[in-house]
Amino acid sequence: MITYLAKRLIMMVPLLLGITLISFVVIRLAPGEPVEAMTAMSPKITAETRQRLREFYGLDKPLHVQYATWLKQVATLDFGRSFAPDNRPVTDKIKERIPVTISLNVIALILEFGLAIPIGIFAATHRDTLYDKGITIFVFLGFAVPTFWLALLLMYFFGVKLGWLPISGLHSLGSETLSPMAWFVDLAKHLILPVSVATFGSLAGLSRYMRSTMLEVIRQDYITTARAKGLTERAVIYRHALRNALLPVITLLGFSLPGLIGGSVIFETIFAIPGMGQLFYQGVMGRDYPLVMGILVIGAFLTLVGNLLADLCYAMADPRIRHGRG
Amino acid sequence: MTARLFCCLAALVTLVSCSGGTPPAELPRRGAGAPAYGDALVVGTIGEPSNLIPLLASDSASHDVAGNVFNGLVKYDKNLELVGDLAESWQVSPDGLTITFRLRKGVKWHDGTEFTSRDALYTYRVTIDPKTPTAYAEDFKQVKSAEAPDRYTFRVTYGKPFAPALASWGAGILPAHLLEGKDITKSPLSRHPVGTGPYRFKEWIAGQKVVLEAFPDYFEGRPYIDRFVYRIIPDTSTMYLELKAGGLDMMGLTPVQYARQTDTPDFLARFNKFRYPASAYTYLGYNLRNPLFADRRVRQAIACAINKDEIVHGVLLGLGQVAHGPFKPGTWPYNPSVRDFGYDPARAKALLAEAGWHAVGPDGILTKDGKPFSFTIFTNQGNDQRLKTAQIIQRRLAKVGIEVKIRVLEWASLLTNFIDKRNFDALIMGWTIPQDPDIFDVWHSSKTGPKELNFIGFKNAEVDRLIEEGRSTFDQEKRRRCYWRIQEILAQEQPYTFLFVPDALPVVNARFRGIEPAPAGIMHNIIRWYVPKEEQVH
C-alpha cells in the first residue's frame, strides 16, 4: 500500500507541472493582455504608457522566461501579485474568498448527499411506483431548470413578495453590531436560498446514480440469499445492500473535492456571494495571469489529490487494485 | 426633426405618466421634512473597486468610491462649469502657459493633518513618475515645471497653452505626508484611503461592501447622510430585486425597468425616478480605408437610410435622444443647429446612384462593377442595445439595397483581432463624452496609428486645425466656435453615423430629500442630501 501511495505521489509532480505549462500557454493564447483590459479605448493612454505598464508586469519578456520566473516563485509557494490595479498578493485574494466557497459547498454537499441517498434508495426499493415516477420528474426538473432562472424566481417570491428571506450577499447591513447568535441566524438566513438552489441543481444526478447502483446491488445473488434466509426487507436493504451500493457513491465524494474550492460563476454572481467562481471569472476577464494561474494550480492540485483519495478508497475496498492485478 | 423628436419624447412622457395613474416621478412627492443628520445611503455597484487610490485605478467602481473620499484642485459644478474644489481660485497667465492655484486654507485630511501645496506637488510628481503604473499621466506630462512657492500656492507651467490642462487638475489629490518616499503600488492606502473628501473610509469587506462615513470636518460642511455603503452586486436583475426588497436605496435602471417595470403606484410611492441625458453616445463607425466607404455620398446615404428615431424607440424605449455629433446635447460645445441626415430612404437611393451603385442584382442588392454592396457590422458581446441597433440598421439598409451582416465578438477578441488590425468594415460602439470637449485622441489625423483611437482612419485637415486651435486656448468663446464648426464638418462627412445619446435613469429611495437634478446629474450635491429624522431607517 505504501509503495502504491509513493508511486502515485511521485507521478503527481510531472502531471502538475504539465498542467501548469498547458494552462500558462493557453491563457496567453486568449486575445488581449492584462494591459489591454486596463487601458483599451482610453484616450489617456499612449503607446509609451502601455509599454511602461507591460514592463511593470514583466510582460515584455519572452514567454519561457515569464514561465520560468513564475515557476520559481510558485516553488516557494508564492503565487505572485495580481495584475489587477490592486496589485495584491494572489494568495491574499484567494484566502479571502476560499472560506466562503468551501463552507457553502460543504453545506450544499452534505445536503446533496443527505437527500440524494435516501431519495435514491427509496426510488430503487419502490421501483416503478407512482412515488418513483414522481421523484424522477422532480429530480429531472432540477436538471432542466436553469440555475439563474430558479434563483431569480425564488428571490422574487421569498425576498420581494413575502419578504421572508434576504435576497443576496452574506450579511445584513449592520450585522456587525448583532450578538453572536443573532449574527449566525442572519448568516443562516442569507444562505438558505443559495444553498437550496445549489443543492436542487445537483440532486438529480446524484439521486439517479444512487438509485441505479442500489438496483444493481439488489439484483445480486447474495441479496436473494439474504432474502431466502428470511431476513426482513429492512435488514436486507439497509444492512446488506446499502453498504455495497454506497461504495461507488462515496467515491464520488472524493471527486467532489476540487469542486469544493471551484465555486460557480453564475450562482455566485446572482446571489452576490464573493466566492472563488467570481474571483476566477474576474481574473479571466481582466487577463489577470497570476491570479488565474494561482487558482488553476490549486484546482489542479486538489483534483489530483481527489483522484488519489478516490483511488485509495477503491484500493482499500478491493485488494486487487493495490497489488496491481486486475 | 427636432420637433418630431420632441413630439415623440413628449408623447412617451405622457404615455408613461398615464399608465398606472400616477404622475412621472421627476420630483419628490413627499413633503420636504427638516434636514437631519443620520441614516445611510446604500447603493449597488456591479463591479468591486480595484484600488481606492484614484491614480492607480481605471475602473468606474473605484472612481465612484474614491470620488467621495478625495478632492481635486478643481471640479465640475452642477451646470458642468469648472469651479474651485481644493483650490479656492486660479489664474491663467495672459500667454496661457502658467496656471497659479490659490489653495483653500484649513482643509483637513481625514487623519487631521492640514492639506497644503506639498500634496498637490506630490500628486503631480507621483503621477508622472515612470514607476507609477497609471493611465492618467498624459495630461500632466504636458507640464514643463511645477512648483509650490508657499503652503497655499501651487503653480504649473506648460510648454504651450493647453486647454484640457485645467480640467486635468480635477484628479484626486493624494496625501504627501502618508505616501512620499514610499512605493505607491504597495501602499496600504489603496485599501484604506485617506483623503480630504466629504466621506472617509471605514471598511471594505472583499466582494461584499465598501463603507464610508461622513467626515465631520469636511471643508464644505459635514454631510447629512452619515454613511455611504457600496454593496457589490454583480448581477443587475439581483440588484433590481434588492432595490424592490429594500436592500438598496439607489441604482441606475435599464430602459425596460424604467418604462415598464417601475410604474406601479407602490414603486412610485417608495422611489423617485430621475432621467437626464447620459454623457455617452453610440455610433456606427466606418473603416474609411475600405474602398466601400471611401465615397462621402455612400456614408451619407447610409445615414439617410437609418431611422434614428426608430432606434431610440426600439432600443431605448424612447429614453434617449438622437445624436448628431460627438458632444453632449445641451452643453456649450454642442451645436444645436447642426442636424446630420434625417430618415430619407429615397435620398439614400439617389445618393447611392450618384456614387455609382445602380444595378440591382436578382436578390435586390445594389452592385457596382459587378460587386454587391455588402458589409459586416462588428459589435461587442454583452451589449444588447448595440446588437438590437445593428439588427434595426440591417433591416433598414436592406430596404435600400445594402446587405449587412452582423458579427458579435468578445471584447478582447474584437479589439485585438479586428479593431487593432483595422480589419473591419463598420462598427457599432460607444464613447463616453468627457466634460472637456477636446476630441484630439479620437478625431485628429495623427491618432490613426496602431492601437490609437482614430481607428476608422478619419483625416481632415480642417478638423485637425480646429482641434489644435480648440485645445490651445482657454477662451471658451473661441473654443466654442472651433467645436461648432467641427460638428458641422462631421455631420456632412459622416465618418461615424452618430446614433443616440441614452438617458441616465437613476432611482433613489423617496426618503432621501435635497436631491437637485441638474445637467451634471443628481450626485453633485450629495452632501446636502438628507433623510428627515422620522423617516431614518439605519
Automatic annotation (TrEMBL), chain A:
Family as reported in the entry's similarity comment: Belongs to the binding-protein-dependent transport system permease family.
The membrane topology term of the UniProt record is: Multi-pass membrane protein
Q: What is this protein called in UniProt?
A: Peptide ABC transporter, membrane protein
Q: What compartments host this protein? A: Cell membrane
Q: Which residues form the ABC transmembrane type-1 domain?
A: 98-310
TM region positions? 102-123, 135-158, 191-210, 245-271, 291-317
Family matches, as InterPro entries: BPD_transp_1_N, MetI-like, MetI-like_sf
Tell me where on the tree of life, at the top rank, the source sits: Bacteria
Keyword terms of this UniProt record: Cell membrane, Membrane, Transmembrane, Transmembrane helix, Transport
UniProtKB/TrEMBL annotation, chain B:
Give me the Gene Ontology terms describing cellular component. Answer: ATP-binding cassette (ABC) transporter complex; outer membrane-bounded periplasmic space
- Gene Ontology terms describing biological process: peptide transport
UniProt keywords (A-Z) are:
Lipoprotein, Signal, Transport
- Transmembrane residues, as ranges? none
CDD domains associated with the record: PBP2_AppA_like
- In what residue span(s) does the Solute-binding protein family domain sit? 81-438
Tell me which family the UniProt entry assigns to this protein. Belongs to the bacterial solute-binding protein 5 family.
Protein's recorded name: Peptide ABC transporter, periplasmic peptide-binding lipoprotein
Question: What organism is this sequence from?
Answer: Geobacter metallireducens (strain ATCC 53774 / DSM 7210 / GS-15)
